[in-house]
Each structure stands twice: as structure tokens, then as C-alpha cells.
Fold Oxidoreductase, short chain dehydrogenase.
Amino acid sequence: MPPDQQREMPHGQPAQHQERQPGREHRMTPRPVFIREEYRGSGKLTGKVALVTGGDSGIGRAVAVHFAREGADVAIAHLEEDQDAGETKRLVEAEGRECLTFRGDLGNENTCRDLAGQVMDRFGRLDVLVNNAAEQHVCESLADISAEQLERTFRTNIFAQFYLTKACLPHLRKGAAVICTTSVTAYRGNPKLLDYSATKGAIVTFVRSLAAQLAPEGIRVNGVAPGPIWTPLIPATFPEEKVEQFGGDEPLGRPGQPADVAPSYVFLASADSAYISGQVLHPNGGEPVES
């Protein structure tokens, strides 16, 4: 089925489940749509270097490929999804750009320092940082969230954003952009994703505060708060019957595709958003949110 036909399906995913996180994109049916066939780059990021965490699949893959089509070389970081990361690298290189892949746990500050160093060794500059990697775990009650899960979710989702931005900051110059992935759950909550939702709320505040701190240096900081998007995180989180229904109750009647979200990152990374900082975009299928 052509990608654009998949993208227009209201909710075309069959029941499926993956037993562990991070999920694997190559095991999903249908595969997520990472870029629309008609998307045409216009050189918005020519000469720039971008680092995208969670860049092996889902939104991260879509952002990496869109950035490459706009002229950027890209580094992607992933945990252990080597096959998916290799596919993203191939897709970026097919756009005529260079791609560095990095395997590691960004919840560790030393790993983030190593990643920043490798990007600089390979490319000699860094213009756009996309803090995107995340994990989530369903729990029916606060009583079911163990201390280990709580710490792990915060390490992956928000500690890593602190660590990596700190490690990259000495290399960012005037005109650089930091983009952080938060979620619609930061604004409306989710009773079964309590710790995940809390980290996403923290990311919103991180964006607003860091934007104010870095404004005098000419570095912009913004966020993107996707709604229900068809990524490997979904079958790796929810039971089969929930996956089959995923996104069907949104105003637009379908789950989003990564291709629906990535242009928001292109906008925030480029000079088109030169007068925007401390803000969050909401590609969420039409759900109103209050900031």
C-alpha cells in the first residue's frame, strides 16, 4: 500500500503487541509513514548539522529524514534498536546527506558527553538538537509504579534532556535551535501513564525556562507536543485490543503518522521560526489544549 494511502486511513492498524521497549519499527503492521512522497525540501537547513535522539524510528526517524531532505547532515542516537537505526541511516544517506549513528543509554550523563563529543568529532559543528527519546509504561494505579520504573522513566524522558543539552551547549552558537518532544499528556494527563505524563509536563517547563535562559545568546528553545502517533512505542506499550483502537477517537478520526509531525520540527529548526522561542506546537489530531 502506498505511504499516502496508509496516511489517510482513519485507523488502519491491526491488533498487535511487542513484548519489550523500545519497540521495533520493522515489526509494525502497517509500517509508520515517515515522509510524504510529495514533501519537497527547499534548503531550509542547508549546511546545518542536527542531532536527533530516538532517531532510529517513529517521530525521530521522520525528523531525521525531513532534516536531511532540507539539507542537514544528521546524527541519530538510539538505545539498542540497531536494525531500525541502520534503516534510518540508509534513508538519510539516500537524501544525499551524512548520518552518524550512536548506540547508548542517554539516561547516563557520561553517555551524553560521549555523544556530543562524537558529533563534534564527525561534523565539527552542531546547529540543531532534538531531544526526542522517551519510554512509557501502563500502570492502573499509582501504587503499581515501582521506584525503579519511576526513576527509569524520568531518566529516559527528562534527565536525558538535561544531560544532553548540557553536553551540547558549549557547541551551540547564535542561531542554533533546541527542540524537545513533550506530549499532549502534559496538558490533559493520562490516568494510566502517570509517570510518563509527569515527565512530559516537566519537559514543557524545561522548554520555557531554558528558552528564557538562552535567549540572550540567540539560541531558541521550543517543544512539540504530539497527540496519538503511530510509532513503535504504541505496540510496545499497550495490549493488542488498545492498539487496534489507537487514535480512532481523535477529532480527525485517525492516529497521526510521524510524517504529520516532522514538519513542525523543520519549522522550529529553521529560520522560519526565528522569532519563536519558549513555545510548544501541537500536532495532535485536532484536540484543543490549554497551555
Observations:
- The CA atoms of residues 225 and 282 lie 5 Å apart.
- Residues 3-9+18-241+248-281 form a domain with the Rossmann fold fold (CATH 3.40.50.720).
- The chain has one domain: 3-9+18-241+248-281.
